[in-house]
Amino acid sequence: MTKKLIAIVLGLSAWITGTVAATVGQTGTAAAQSLFKIERAHADYTPSLDGTDPIFILILGSDSRPGEPMNRGRSDSIHILGINPAKHRATIYGIPRDSWVPLSTGGTNKINAAMPAGGPEAALATVEQLTGITFDYYVLSGFDEVTHAVNQIGGLVVDRPYTVVGDRQTFAAGSSRMTGSEVLGFSRTRHSLPLGDFDRSLNQGVVLLSALSQFRKEYAKDASRMYTWLGAGLRNTQTTVPVDELIRLAGLAQALPATKVSNLVAMGSSGMQGSQSVVYLADQNAALWQDLAADGYILQKDIPATAQPAP
Amino acid sequence: MARRRVIIGVVVAIVVIGGLYLLFGGKDAPISIPNFFSSSPPVPAFSFTSVRSGYEATVAGADKDAQAATAKDLAPKVEDTVTTLFQAGYVDPSSWGDAGAIEDLFTDDAKGQLDANIDVLTLGTTAGDVYTALQPSTSSLKVVALTDAKGNALRAEALPVFVAIATHADGTFSEITVTGTLFLVHDGNEWRIEAFSLNRDEKPAEAPAPSASVSTSASESP
Q1: Fewest beta carbons within 10 Å, which of A57, A101, A235, A311?
Q2: With an 8 Å Cβ cutoff, is B159 touching chain A?
Q3: b/e per residue B68-93 (b: at least 16 CB within 10 A)
């Protein structure tokens, strides 16, 4: 009987000891680790454009007035956006609206006349014919639409390289948050600029770069801003860029600071065609377009001084 | 004699089981043996206390009622995905740090990012060394539908505010808060997470009140 009791006690002791030892062991490990404290941690992932093929988007601004179809106005603002996803570089290449070029719809005219003749597709085909660049998408906006889009994202902080005297307002050099109508006014100002339409096109590139910088900042602070920007952008444009691609572009934007985006405008000289004031594009542009078509970007150092923003 | 053999057999069995526990005891042991001295609480069922819905239209002048109705319909579907994420990733200790337990909630592209972000998408790979349990507290969710001209949801955005009291193995407590944005896309028959940006904060906390538990949800539209 005594032996039985001893055996039972030994058995129970082994169980108890095992259980207690396991429990104490866990507590000991945890106590040693209790100094480990995560105060703030972050997880982040957005699908991004990748691959080595460049992406080209033609950005058009229509001069259509309220009530007129945006896609039948003249494209007074024309910018090629080239993006190299693999190298995280991009280029904005403006083309003056008065550029005298062969149109895809036939004949030679100011480049902004292509859209009234055949819509944004004709404008795109004209720029393709001119530059040798094949576009993946286009984005088209108008006066009211730009104003609304900027207001719907809460204004746009634009860093203006120099003071611009507009028709209704002077925009002092420096950085400030601009309303939609101010951004439109700044983007449309031409008469007071030293190089007229060339400088205006460059300033429109400055606005696009400002939008990139602001989107990056806002997304880093609050990712939900992506839908605010997508909504404001899509409500106020006509575009062939699908939502999937826009989300991947937004992802790519996280790795694309404005300093990696060059901004230039086509070189040329003013002249007359009959009674029309026009721009004759310089032959120099061909080599730059070829460079851009090859990989989606032009390095700042390769841009002639005459095609860059004023210091 | 036979009775004696039975008793000896029982005693030997007890000794063997006790020995096995000594060797392989603990929550990671391959053999699960009941631990009568451990007080592992049952895993709570998590749900958001409040769920709101909204929309972001991609077309100007879209029918507001249709957009709002879409958002309201979408909210419970997105809520399911996000609730499962927090249940598996945070509330259930058996899947802390386990990417496999949450990977079905993500698109194929996003699955490749789970390991790199697992210490925020879940309580963490070493959470079992630090915490013993997690009790969800009042948590909220906002679901935003990105809608097309017809009022269809193209995408969804979920903005959770997940709050929980973690019990540390040393007997202390901390409040864990997870906030940020999850982007979802309709993938197959489910709304899956295609992108995310989440922040996790932790601060010391008092012991939770005995009555603190979350088990109901409510929905509302803005």
Answers
A1: A311
A2: yes
A3: bbbbbebbebbbebbbbbbbbbbbbb
Model confidence at B73, pLDDT cuts 50, 70, 90, reads very high
Query: For residue B25, what pLDDT band results from cuts at 50, 70 and 90?
Result: very low
How would residue B215 be classed by pLDDT, with cut points 50, 70 and 90? very low
- Which token pair is B137? 């507290």
How high is the pLDDT of residue A9? Answer: 56
The residue with tokens 């014919």 is: A129
Q: Tell me the H-state helices in B87-112.
A: 99-102, 108-111
Nearest-CB residue to A224 (from B60, B159, B201): B159
Q: Please check whether residue A151 touches B, CB under 8 A.
A: no
Residues in B touching A41 (Cβ below 8 Å):
119-120, 199-200
- Dihedral angle computed from the Cα positions of residues A101, A103, A108 and A114, in that order, rounded to the nearest 10 degrees: -100
> Of chain A residues 282-301, which have a CB less than 8 A from chain B?
none
CA distance B199 to B189: 28
DSSP state of A201: H
User: B4, B5, B6, B11: best mutation site toward chain A, by most A Cβ within 10 Å?
Assistant: B11
User: Model-level pTM?
Assistant: 0.83
Assess whether pLDDT exceeds 60 at residue A36. Answer: no
Partners of A20 on chain B (C-beta within 8 Å) are: 37
Instruction: Look at residue B121 and give its three-state secondary structure.
Output: helix
User: Does any CB of chain A come closer than 8 Å to the CB of residue B17?
Assistant: yes
